[in-house]
Write a structure and sequence with these properties.
heterodimer, A: 287 residues, mainly alpha, MetI-like fold, 2 domains, disordered N terminus, B: 332 residues, transport (chain B), MetI-like_sf (chain B), sugar transport (chain B)
Chain lengths: 287, 332
Amino acid sequence: MTATSLPPNSAPRVRVRVNRLVLYTVLVALTGLFIGPFGWLILSGLKTPAELAASPVHWLPTDFQWQNFADAFHLIDFLGYARNSLIIALIYAVLVTLSSAWVGFGFARLEAPGKKTLFGILIGSMMLPQMITLLPTYLIFAKLGMVDTYWPWVFWGLAAAPYLVFLFRQFFAGLPRELEEAAIVDGCGYGMIFWRIFLPQSWPVLSASFVIAFTWSWGDYIAPQLLLSTDKSTLAVAVMTTYVTSAGTPVTNLQAAASVMYVVPILLIFLIAQRGFVAGMSTTGLK
Amino acid sequence: MTVDQIPVTGRTDPAARADRATPAGRRPRISMTARRHRAFYLFTAPWIIGFLLLTIVPMAYALWLSFTTYDGISPHWRYVGLGNYTELFSDPQTWNSLGRTGLFAVTSVPLSIVAGLGLAVLVNRPVKARGLFRTLLYLPAVVPPVGVGLTFKALFDQNSGAANGVITLFGFDALGWLADPYARYVLLMSVLWAAGNVMIISLAGLQDVPRELHEAARIDGASAWRTFRSITVPLLSPVLLFQTVTGVIASVQTIMPLLLSPDGTTAGVTALPQSNYLYMMHVFSQYFALGRYGYASALLWVLFVLILIVTGLIFKFTSGVVFYNVDPEAKK
């Protein structure tokens, strides 16, 4: 019995094994392709300018120029720019997370005439290209004397972000109705219900929203470029524009080192907050 | 005003106080509904006010500017009616950049979606270290645009770039990747690098596909490809539609060409390789390099109307194909 059943059984088993091998090879190759460019950036940050200019390509630096990272730190006021980026990202991420949770609660838990229309506008506005409002917004802020201040980020934060509102709305809509009923019977206002009952329940979404908003702001290039003068500007702008010699030629090895230092915090935040972040991203896709 | 201080509905409101003055401090039933209505508007107010002030007002302002020659400095600006619009339509740069943007959108969006979906299918299989593969493939999608720009500049640099390193190994001549005509391919690759965004959202969609459907198909003898085409893709279609629409809008306003340019600042927008001179670059160059705010506003409004039309068309032509199995509003 075993002797006869073995051949037809082992053939698929071999095929399964080959399939697995192909699958892992493809996965590893693709992963290499996706991670490779970042490795190259790090290597570029470890070379001398001569090595970067050499042709053909120097694959590995002969001497790892670790001091490039220190030099990149000192050539410009790296810490100052990083502090500006951090302040702006914190202001925006904290405010927009709270305001989006607040608005999301309204859409998830309350009813009023016009709610459907408003929700439609909210979803539609996710599709509105931000660039189109940004240039006129700059002119308006300039008129109001708010260029070169961090006020625009306060307003953007207070105004809630449709994407995050949607995230919170999905989460709040899934919580059981009993949560607020008892509180309403006790005469508790909705503000209190939101603050005392719903917010403490929503740590996963709060952290996802915070990370997403922080990442947006840290990565934003055009808004700070438009609205802030050089010394108040963010790391994104500084890394892009300030690594030049007095003669105006770019210092590419230091720029590469600086961009590694600029990107790494975001990657770390992502890796730490990965679960919430990914859950947050995917909920929105499933609208 | 912190959230703490936001007045709790019905407490500070005189009408609600009057309600409470009724016998035994009990509110009449009707005020419950009224309270809910008021609370709804109070809760959505930040977004409504923000949307009016930070979206509608700037857009209206841009519309007004688009009829003028405003440049931000000169006091001698004037109303020119449709002047900017007629100029815009006769400007070859408008049409050229628009054509390139369209080409960029119709190549980058489908490629990203196919790549992202392919990755999602791969990392949805029961492989070892699946979480690690997912994380690493997704990682480039969180790299900020400036990081992407600098990384790709390092990769495709004529002398020190890894791309030329590889092709010279095979005996080919080093290419000027960041100049015409190759710059457009580098731009495309920089977008595909972030395919993890599509992957993560498609992955969530894949995990929502009921297992029984796949099993039933397998019992009926359907091939893996057939199952994917006839079950997985239709069930994922709302997700794919969402990806298409947001992808098109994102590709239209991409600033990546700017970040890939040798100069890399908004001032250097005119020095871009022609093949990467997209519509938004045309807007930037009119705005920053020439200070023609009125003209740039007209360009932006034309783009806005075009996006509305294109989005509308996408929804119209996919309405028969996209399959919604759950009404998101229904599952409360």
